[in-house]
Design a protein that fits this description.
Layout: H1 8-19, E1 45-50, H2 57-60, E2 66-67, E3 88-95, H3 105-109, H4 123-131, E4 139-143, H5 170-177, H6 179-182, H7 193-210, H8 217-238, H9 262-278, E5 284-289, H10 324-328, H11 333-354, H12 365-368, E6 369-374, E7 389-392, E8 403-411, H13 412-422
Parallel strand pairs: 1-5, 1-6, 3-8, 4-5
Antiparallel strand pairs: 2-8, 3-7, 6-7
Length: 442
């Protein structure tokens, strides 16, 4: 099947839209239209990890600025990252104030992740557009994000200004991105491939019908997005990609909705990211723990129960206080224990990346990846200053790993800009940036 070659009229229509500049707002400011990825220098892969409701800041930032040592995170929820200490840049005293910060969770979600520009494409989307990918520009996965209060509590925004709703089901993510490329263990094709081909044909026909309609700029942008999605599926079904190494397997768990399964679901999603990077399906991934102001998941993973005090055993494991937003305003030891779980999962992702070869760029995947971990607010009481943020990964030696940095109240947008430079991107600014973060880049 070669559907795309038979649809030249539709493709010419879409390209004419692009030539006329009828795409979404902010594209020039956020560099969404140009793939200027530096192939020979800087970080090659990007993961953005979101966790809700901030952290207990004095616990999170208990480390000193300067070289990180084995005791730097001893009393911090970052303690579980010690195995990768030489690939961490821990940053204190950044600020969201003037860079999208707000005392309300939905209001913060409108701009914190886009450099202070409300409803603009978020940083993960901007990076994904710049880096590109062999099949898709960005994969979005989550844990309990589908239980968010509403789309306004979702942190990430696509290039058309729409909130991104991610899949919480690891099996669904694998089936959509990896199944047709990796194949089954006995070499037989995925039994759902024929069904997906029929869906692809139907989507092409629907886009053809849209040509006859008068479309708004927003609708035209969505149509271009659909074109990209169809290109991805066409490439996937053609089965021409070569993947390197072993370690590809379908997750054994889906989205169960059971609190006790959250640990296994999060790990399965982290493995999905690592497998997608190893197969070079994409160079950008976004991981979302729940939605902002979340009250759906009891965070009771076995690894953090020793830190949960009286809520770490017995009937209190089922109490309402074990939910993130409920405990956040107390900024208690329980809330601090919950933020440990996020970092344990990031450490697991780093383990997965470190254990897989990067057949495209050499070394391991972790050697070439930059991971940004952040929330929409600073502290549990909606503070905008000194949020719990760190950057992890080898980033191809583009950043000063193994370091604690005092950003001296620098705006968050400045860190975004520096991260873009770590990828060799020639961005003059991002959002409300006014420079960089001293000591971050090499």
């Amino acid at each position: 099947m070669n559907v795309l070659k038979n649809k030249m009229q539709r493709r010419d229509f879409l390209r004419s839209i692009a030539r006329l500049g009828l795409t979404t707002a902010f594209t020039s400011q956020f560099m969404l239209s140009a793939n200027v990825f530096a192939q020979t220098a800087g970080a090659k892969r990007f993961v953005m990890v979101y966790y809700p409701n901030g952290c207990v800041r004095d616990k999170w930032h208990s480390y000193n600025a300067g070289a990180l040592g084995s005791n730097s995170f001893a009393t911090s929820p970052l303690q579980h990252l010690n195995a990768h200490l030489n690939k961490i840049v821990a940053i204190k005293n950044l600020t969201y104030n003037g860079h999208g910060g707000s005392s309300g969770h939905p209001e913060a979600c409108r701009a914190v992740f886009s450099g202070g520009q409300e409803y603009a494409p978020t940083f993960d989307v901007a990076i994904g557009e710049a880096l590109g990918g062999r099949l898709t520009k960005n994969m979005h996965v989550g844990v309990w994000s589908s239980k968010a209060k509403g789309t306004e509590y979702m942190p990430f925004t696509d290039k058309n200004g729409n909130k991104i709703q991610v899949s919480d089901n690891p099996q669904q993510v694998y089936d959509a991105l990896l199944a047709d490329i990796v194949g089954s263990s006995n070499g037989t094709p995925d039994p759902d491939a024929a069904r997906r081909k029929k869906v692809l044909e139907t989507l092409h026909e629907n886009l053809d019908l849209l040509q006859a309609n008068t479309l708004s700029v927003r609708q035209q942008g969505k149509l271009l997005t659909h074109e990209e999605a169809l290109n991805y599926y066409q490439n996937t079904l053609s089965g021409t990609l070569e993947i390197g190494g072993t370690g590809f397997s379908r997750p054994t768990i889906g989205m169960t909705g059971i609190d006790d399964d959250a640990d296994a679901i999060a790990k399965a999603q982290m493995r999905n990211i690592a497998m997608a990077f190893q197969a070079d399906i994409t160079r950008t991934a976004t991981f979302q723990f729940m939605g902002a102001q979340d009250e759906s998941l009891r965070i009771i993973a076995p690894d953090i129960r020793p830190y949960m005090g009286e809520y770490g055993s017995g009937e209190k494991l089922t109490h309402n206080e074990t939910r993130s937003h409920v405990s956040s305003h107390n900024e208690s030891a329980l809330f601090d224990a919950q933020t440990r779980w996020y970092n344990i999962m990031v450490a697991y992702l780093m383990d997965q990346l470190a254990g897989r070869p990067d057949v495209t760029y050499g070394g391991t995947l972790l050697d070439n990846t930059l991971i940004l971990v952040m929330s929409e607010v600073g502290g549990g009481n909606h503070q905008q200053e000194n949020p719990g943020i760190y950057v992890a990964g080898g980033a191809d030696n583009a950043i000063r790993s193994g370091t604690g940095i005092d950003a001296n109240n620098t705006g968050m947008s400045n860190l975004y800009l520096d991260i873009s430079k770590a990828f060799g991107l020639n961005w003059g600014r991002y959002g409300n940036s006014s420079g960089g973060v001293v000591g971050f880049l090499r």
